[in-house]
Amino acid sequence: MSMKKSLLYTICLSFIINISFAGEGMWIPLLLKSLNEAEMQQMGMKISAEDIYSVNQGSLKDAIVHFGGFCTSELISGNGLLLTNHHCGYGQIQSHSSIDNNLLKNGFWAKDLASELPNPGLTATFIDEIIDISEAALSGVADEMSLKDRQSQIDKNISEWKEKLVLKDYQDVRVRPFFHGNQYFAFVTTTYQDVRLVGTPPESIGKFGSDTDNWVWPRHTGDFSLFRIYAGPDNLPAEYSEENVPYQPKHFLPISLDGVEAGDFTMVFGFPGRTQEYLPSVAVEQIVEVSNPAKIAIREKALSIVDKYMRQDEKTRIQYASKFARIANYWKKWIGESTGLKKTHAIDKKMAFEEEFVNAQAKDSPYRFILDEFADLYDELAPYAYVRDYYSEVTGRNIEIMRILNVARRLLSSYESSGADGFNNYKNRVNSFLENFYKNYNPEIDKEVFAALTQMYVENVHLDFVPKGLKVVARDGKKDDFMDKANRFYSNTIFVNGDRFMKVLEMDPAEAVEIIKNDPAFTLGMNWKKLYDEGVALPYNEIKFSIDSLQRVYMAALMETFPDKRFYPDANSTMRVTYGQVQGYEPVDAVAYYPVTYLDGVMEKFKPGDYEFDVEDRLVELYEMKDYGQYAAKNGKLPVCFIATNHTTGGNSGSPAIDAYGNLIGLNFDRAWEGTMSDYNYDSSICRNIMVDARYILFVIDKYAGAGHLIKEMKLVHPKAN
């Protein structure tokens, strides 16, 4: 082994085998006592694992709420007051906004309970209990079973276990696989359906820096919003009713006014969405070299078009604000992810670790050639994965009309299976979706996106996977022909006009079906989908199934080969705890970042009239007067954001940052751009989660908005004074 390779191996093994105080890992709360408590307390935590997770008494987990199934939130008062990110509540804030009453631009603060705004469909879910059911789920499962038989046995076992479980009428249970199907845990849940908007700062605070600052440190965004959970008179879940009352929680988080310093213990509690920490190097290489560049290019083109229109008028900006943010979010994330994976030599580290893994296997080990199997499978998957990325990005996420074509397809399917009744039933189910879609739809924007992205698809995807409707352009057309085709396409379809499409839906179902079937947009969309389903999705899914099955074996092999390592499961939208320390970092040579930002930085970035960096006069006034009240730091400045080494991902948006004593110190909302690769490879040198300082949140509510009645609900504490 060369000196260079030996050094690389040493670094890698240290990184993989040991969990340092860096903050790597997304841990199951149920297991903190046995796996993490001692280390957490050594790092400075003053509470116990029982204080974090308990089924016998109120604990921190009872203040942590799955917000809408896509974000995290937390209770901060005994009256059901719920804190989450501005971007998590963005859709609800937008739905209550109009040109005449623009809550996005102006903010909103309910003066009393009666003024709080309902949000149909928004839910708040609590985790009542976590149960390890691995033994029951895997009973009777044998290595020699076929993959189909294995899964059938597991499904049967889980079904039988659920039948024996005693639940209350309002509870549900969800079972999730962990470690790629090597373990199973059940989550007993309670979901509340009445969640109302209480307060939100204007975008100039809640979205300050917008897309320019997204995934960036230093950050100065007050990314928070307030909701309230309502319950029936018995404090149990109930559908929306004016008779409902604020929920009374088992536990809520006190809020610390003492702030943070470098080295302070931090803990983030929430529902991280998806990570893939145990992928083989060949998979990560495909992500960096093929998948991410393709997706980045597609979204960059779409965003440039939408941005151009959003800058032209206020109506379009309101219509497309949420959609633009959604598309831009992962576009920028993927750029940072690829940069971080390259910067930290993640692929080389994985390869060195894989070599050590192979060397640790006996000659007759069933795991000896598992990495060769991965290489063959990923090589086979590559061409289909590339087309899949293009198809999903172009048709599924960026050309809006494709969403309506999917609705139309399901309408036809309902008609074919259940006749007119099926058609009408499905139509009634999607009416509200269609109304909301067309409310925020501009066909001119979509047409230009269609032209640009279909051109990219044709120029970058093998002709075998290009639908007939686009092949003419591919063979004979010039660049401008894509726009010409888009003009004809959007002029001759019913789907770009909401009133026109809704009138068709009011016709006799048989007549409506014929119109839909013969629509040129529908024809193209269905031909494209058929080509994709048969030529791409089918082989892709078959190969991916083999990869996923091999990943389960590989995960078991890792745990068997390195028995002294504390493995943490990949994120899967279940409740997790991650912990670390407040700490700055050095992103590039000769640059060092401090861990805390202040209101001074907001004013340094301030650009009057700019839609990303404008600042309201009231905030400027408070800054100039230095009127920060009890929310100022020891240095007299007003803290805005801070960073720490907590291992987070999507789904942790809105997660509370909790101090050593169990108090709220901040609100997680992002990761530093250079460390977004932590979904595949956590590196303590650059992986940082970004949080709004709790004192800035309180300052905005109290001093800026004058909503002191909300502050009175909360419990403000000084834990460091003890």
Radius of gyration: 26 Å
Query: In angstroms, what separates the terminal alpha carbons?
Result: 55 Å
- Major sheet size, sense and barrel closure: 11 strands, antiparallel
Kindly provide the name of the CATH class of the largest domain: Mainly Beta
Named at the architecture level, the CATH assignment of the largest domain is: Beta Barrel
DSSP E strands, number: 20
Structural class: alpha+beta
Shape: globular
**Count of alpha/pi helices:** 25
Overall mean pLDDT: 93
Helicity, in percent?
A: 40-55%
- Number of self-contained structural domains: 3
**CATH T-level fold name of the largest domain:** Thrombin, subunit H
Percent strand:
5-15%
Low-confidence stretches: 1-21
Can you walk through the features of this model?
Strands 1, 2, 3, 4, 5, 6, 7, 8, 9, 10 and 11 form an 11-stranded antiparallel beta sheet that branches. A 7-stranded antiparallel beta sheet has the order 14-13-17-18-19-16-15. It contains 25 helices and 20 strands. It is globular and about 75 Å long. It folds into 3 domains: 351 residues, Thrombin, subunit H, CATH 2.40.10; 67 residues, no CATH class; 275 residues, no CATH class. The chain is α+β, with helices and mostly antiparallel strands.
Provide tags for this entry.
14% strand, single chain, Thrombin, subunit H, disordered N terminus, 20 strands, alpha+beta, 3 domains, 722 residues, seven-stranded antiparallel beta sheet, eleven-stranded antiparallel beta sheet
